[in-house]
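Q: what does this look like with NAP bound?
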Amino acid sequence: MTLDHLEPGQLPAPGEVPSRMYASVIRPERYGAPVDAFRTELVDVPPVGPGQVLVMMMAAGVNYNNVWAALGKPVDVIAARQRRGDPFPFHIGGSEGAGVVWAVGEGSSQVRVGDHVVLSGCRWDESAADIRAGVDPMASTTQRVWGYEENWGAFAQFAVVDEYQCHPKPANLSWEAAAAYLLTGATAYRQLLGWPPHTVRPGDAVLIWGGSGGLGSMAIQIVREYGGIPVAVTSSDDRAAHCLRLGAAGVIDRREFDHWGRLPDISDEVAVNTWLKEARRFGQRFWEAVGARRAPRIVLEHPGQDTIPTSMYLCDTAGMVVICGGTTGYNADVDLRFLWMRQKRLQGSHFANVAECRAITQLVAAGRIDPCLAWTGTMEQVGEGHQMMHDNTHPPGNLAVLINAPRPGMTTTEA
Ligand SMILES: NC(=O)c1ccc[n+]([C@@H]2O[C@H](COP(=O)([O-])OP(=O)(O)OC[C@H]3O[C@@H](n4cnc5c(N)ncnc54)[C@H](OP(=O)(O)O)[C@@H]3O)[C@@H](O)[C@H]2O)c1
């Protein structure tokens, strides 16, 4: 007889797949504050298709994308999927995690039942014409974010992923640390090393917004690893201390400035001059941190609307501002004179391809990059973790929740 479901923390017998599972679920009627939007429910275990893998989730990472999913804005992810023909009226989020391969679908040959894996957060159609023609799968028209644009994410006892989403779990890490580094780590890796010729070189000065956040914590370490000089921006003393511990050459406290947001109208000379004065003062703090009158060759962006004008102004001649998000808004102003006269590059960047995921995983496994796990919750606390992120009250680093791992700190399981 097929087992109906497992209680949280109850590990199945090898090969046993229950028909239902606990998952942290968002429904449209609960869209709003993340702490209320997620609720643990029993749902059917999804089927495993060709080229796919069923993973028993031990732990999952908490990321900003499911803050947006919980709010139902700017995209109603459930309605968007339903428009594409998906019948399910709910969302199971979670775009990274760690677990044990529990079953493999037809044609899967790269992983085996029992493998310990970490899961990456983007999927694509490997048979798509653009991929077959050689484009980076992250640039394929078929690319979508698992556990955000796609359903059946990591906040569930079982998850179905495409085989190439599985990467070897660094053996030295607990389940929850392994679940927490890949999304931010691989995204920062691509931002800093994926856009030649603007890759971090020894001696390059790099400005990192939100240095104590998930992305920022990874970015500081990657810049150091490649010989660059990371300068972090934060908004509290303990966050500044975290950045310095990770290897930041200096920290700028954004509370000392008030020129954030959209640029003043170009015809308002007084307002423009006031803005420029603040931006120059910010630049002087950058020089002090670097120890020389040097501008950042790369600026790692994600706040968006509040900070892009400063990023574009400060970026070195022929340097790059590379952006992967818009936490503070999407209507960001660029004074085009700085863009063309100084020949700067404004580059969009989105998660990472398989090679980039492997590269950051190898750095973590080798002990070169700390996953910076800052908080571990339970499945019942998925909403709380996202709420802290939304309110910007989370501790410095990355956040995770235990799913089937019976307790924190476990590196293996008897199952
Ligand atoms: N496209 C992708 O593949 C991808 C991947 C990962 C993340 N992202 C996006 O990147 C953003 C950050 O992600 P994360 O995981 O690093 O989040 P996080 O852990 O919450 O860190 C973001 C940091 O940004 C800083 N911040 C908040 N408001 C700010 C403001 N008004 N001005 C400047 N800095 C501000 C905060 O630090 P301080 O208050 O200390 O300054 C915060 O710690 C999110 O929007 C997320 O969706 C995109």
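The longest strand covers residues 52-62. The domain at 187-348 is CATH 3.40.50.720 (Rossmann fold).
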